[in-house]
Amino acid sequence: MSRRNGPAGGARGGEHAPPLDSRARLLNAAIDEFARNGLLGARVDVIARRARINKQLIYHYFGGKEQLYVAVLEHVYADIRGKERALHLPGSDPLTAMRTLVGFTFDYVSQNRAFVRLLTNENLLEAKYARRSKRIKETRSPLVALLDETLRRGAAAGLFRKNLDPVQVYISIAGLCFFYVANIHTLSVLFERDMEKRAALRERRAHVVEFVLGYLTNTAAAAASRRKHSRPAANGRRSAATAAAGLL
Hints:
Mean pLDDT: 85
Low-confidence stretches: 1-15, 233-248
Oligomer: single chain
C-alpha cells in the first residue's frame, strides 16, 4: 500500500488528529494489520508497536479499533481516488484517457495488494464499516463525473458507443483488474502458470486494456477510428518483429 499520507481518516473518538508523521506510521501499520488479519483478527497493540506509538494514543486519536479501521478504509479510498484525479483524463483524447485509466487501475491493484485484501475483508463484513463513512461515499461523485465526461467526449467524437453508463463501465474495469489480483494464487494453481510473474502481469494488463477498449469501440465507425489511432504502435511492433526476424 502506498506509504504517502492521504487526506482522509481524521480523528474519531479523540479530540485531536495525530501529528502527520505519527499519523502516517499509524495508518501504514494499521493498513498492514487489517489487511492481513481483518478487523476481527487485527490487534491494536500490534499496530501500536509497528507504528512506534503508545497504544493509548490510538484510543485518544480515534476512539477505538473500529474507528481506526474506518479511518483506514477512508485513507485507501482517498488514495486511489486522488491518483485517478492526477491522471488528468480530461486533458487527453478519449481513447488515450480510457487506456490510461484502465492501465492505472490494473497497476494500482497489482501494486497495492493490501488494498485488495482490505476490500475483500470489508465485503465479507457486508460493507458494514464502509457504510458508516460519509467520506467514502463522497469519493464516488468525482469518479463518476470524470468517467462520464470521458465517455461522452468519446461518443461525441464517434469513438465510443453512445449512452454508456459510467458506473457500469467502472465496475467492469474494476472487476477485470480486481478479480485477477484477488485470485492470483488460486488462478496460478488452477492453470499451472505463475500469474505473479512480470510477464504474466504485463500480458493480463494488455488484455484488460484491449478488452475494455474493444467494448467501448464496438461499432463499425468507432472500431475503424480505434484502428487508426492504434496504427502507429502496431506498425512499430511489426517493424520491430521484422527486424528481429532478420536477425534469426
